[in-house]
Automatic annotation (TrEMBL):
<dbReference type="Pfam" id="PF07687">
    <property type="entry name" value="M20_dimer"/>
</dbReference>
<dbReference type="Pfam" id="PF01546">
    <property type="entry name" value="Peptidase_M20"/>
</dbReference>
<dbReference type="GO" id="GO:0006508">
    <property type="term" value="P:proteolysis"/>
</dbReference>
<feature type="domain" description="Peptidase M20 dimerisation">
    <location>
        <begin position="193"/>
        <end position="352"/>
    </location>
</feature>
<dbReference type="GO" id="GO:0046872">
    <property type="term" value="F:metal ion binding"/>
</dbReference>
<dbReference type="InterPro" id="IPR051458">
    <property type="entry name" value="Cyt/Met_Dipeptidase"/>
</dbReference>
<keyword id="KW-0378">Hydrolase</keyword>
<dbReference type="InterPro" id="IPR002933">
    <property type="entry name" value="Peptidase_M20"/>
</dbReference>
<dbReference type="GO" id="GO:0008233">
    <property type="term" value="F:peptidase activity"/>
</dbReference>
<keyword id="KW-0645">Protease</keyword>
<dbReference type="InterPro" id="IPR011650">
    <property type="entry name" value="Peptidase_M20_dimer"/>
</dbReference>
<keyword id="KW-0479">Metal-binding</keyword>
<protein>
    <submittedName>
        <fullName>Dipeptidase</fullName>
    </submittedName>
</protein>
């Protein structure tokens, strides 16, 4: 451990400067205007992998943005770790809510503020630098492969094609991902599962054009009103989702699992203070940890229609739209839930509007085994680095490729994230603590060490 700390200490500024260079690249995969920046980011990642000592570094083209691959095979008989991450980021909007520009990384109170600081540039780059550390100190104990993609934030639609076509190239013993969070640095944790996702868009159409709200108001259904009414019926008074059959495949936690999950440190007053809310909201009968990690949800992600510009325009709009995401738990599937939602939403549409449902992307829930060699290696690494055993938790977010890796490569995943739930992922003023960044670089080599030892 001493040689690890010493290397990080001697290279602290360079490690930070390189991350800042990465964060300055506006690699927004959702908006085509950022395409040159996304491609430049792939080049940057490939260059840094080569600098760190990786062999066979490639920028693998797909129908969308490229996947960066690199490897270091020290001995084919030794175990192999496949590191996954993504270099694309969420759109920075709304820009006016950022205290400092999203692609000009700024340090305040020991925290790096920038889009992608935590999700996932700061986290995947820890692995590149940990690999560099092991190469420079001649302590790499196992083989390592990197697969860093550029489309995670838009559903990884081309990753499955790449994985299926490159099974031999990606052959490994475990997948290691840092795209998740810990409870806190004082209470380190390891996520043992992730929720799946069904993401779709709905459109309600009334008249064939926008109408004068004085001339036609009261005689023609307003699509915004109807959409709001339809959405309001999707939860009951206990915040239970009302779609028939929605919970049919949900595997409830045992009482022992619920007790273990809720044993994690939790301060509800601090939770509410951080979010500036007076009361919490959620499915009745479940704790915050259960609601955010083990129960399915339906959330409205955006809604629009009519006139939203400056001043007044008395319009009865022709259309209204909304984007909706549903987080899924074992044994739900995105295909089945998308169909259930679509059938239900169309069935509750009143006759005076037309309704269209368009699926965007989805992913499957995943649970990682806690008795595997890889999980025990992660436990030992965190325990040594932090001085205390990690708490097992369930993640509320979705990384659809975890299920993909198991289905196509037969590989389980270890979710060893160093972010915090308060890091404002997908929001203005996203951040990542400098301490967490360095701590990740210190901890990751220990995972490789223990994984190699426990695999013997």
């Amino acid at each position: 451990m001493q040689h690890i700390k010493q290397y990080v200490e001697q290279n602290k500024q360079r490690l930070l400067d390189e991350l800042f260079d990465l964060l300055r690249l506006a690699s927004v995969s959702a908006d085509p205007k950022y395409k040159p920046e996304v491609l430049k980011t792939a080049d940057y990642v490939a260059a840094r992998l080569r600098d760190a000592g990786a062999d066979n570094v490639e920028i693998c083209q797909t129908a969308g943005y490229p996947i960066v691959y690199g490897e270091k095979i020290i001995d084919p008989s030794k175990p192999t770790v496949l590191v996954y991450g993504h270099y694309d980021v969420q759109p920075p909007d709304p820009l006016e809510l950022w205290k400092t520009p999203p692609f000009e990384p700024t340090v305040r109170d020991g925290k790096i503020y920038a889009r992608g600081a935590c999700d996932d540039k700061g986290q995947f780059y820890m692995h590149v630098k940990a690999f560099e550390l092991m190469m420079q100190t001649n302590t790499l104990p196992c083989n390592i492969k990197f697969m860093i993609e550029g489309e995670e934030e838009v559903g990884s639609s081309n990753l499955g094609i790449f994985v299926k076509a490159n099974k031999e190239k990606l052959k490994a013993d475990v997948v290691l991902i840092s795209d998740t969070s810990m409870i806190s640095m004082e209470h380190p944790s390891l996520e043992t599962g992730l929720r799946g996702l069904s993401y779709l868009e709905v459109e309600v159409t009334g008249p064939n054009r926008d109408l004068h709200s004085g001339v036609y108001g009261g005689a023609v259904a307003n699509p915004i009103t109807i959409l709001a009414q339809m959405i309001a019926t999707l939860h009951d008074e206990n915040n239970h989702i009302t779609i028939p059959g929605f919970y049919n495949d949900v595997v409830p936690l045992t009482e022992a699992e619920r007790a273990a999950l809720n044993s994690a440190p939790y301060d509800e007053a601090e939770y509410k203070k951080d979010l500036d809310v007076t009361e919490l909201w959620g499915e009745k009968g479940y704790s915050t940890f259960e609601r955010t990690g083990t129960r399915p949800t339906l959330e409205l992600n955006g809604i629009w229609g009519g006139y939203i510009g400056e001043g007044a325009k008395t319009v009865l709009p022709s259309k209204a739209n909304a984007k909706i995401s549903m987080r899924l738990v074992p044994n739900q599937t995105s295909e089945a839930i998308t169909k259930l939602f679509t059938d239900h939403f169309l069935s509750i549409a009143p006759p005076y509007v037309k309704v269209k449902v368009t699926p965007h992307h989805g992913g499957e829930p995943a649970v990682t085994p806690t008795d595997s060699v890889a999980y025990r290696a992660a436990q030992k690494a965190i325990a040594e680095s932090f001085g205390k055993e990690p708490i097992p938790t369930r993640g509320g977010g979705s990384i659809p490729i975890v299920a993909l890796f198991e289905a196509e490569l037969g590989l389980k995943t270890v979710l060893m994230g160093f972010g915090l739930d308060s890091d404002a992922l997908h929001s203005p003023n996203e951040k990542y603590d400098i301490y967490n960044y360095y701590k990740g670089i210190e901890t990751i080599p220990l995972f490789h060490k223990y994984f190699a030892e426990l695999s013997e």
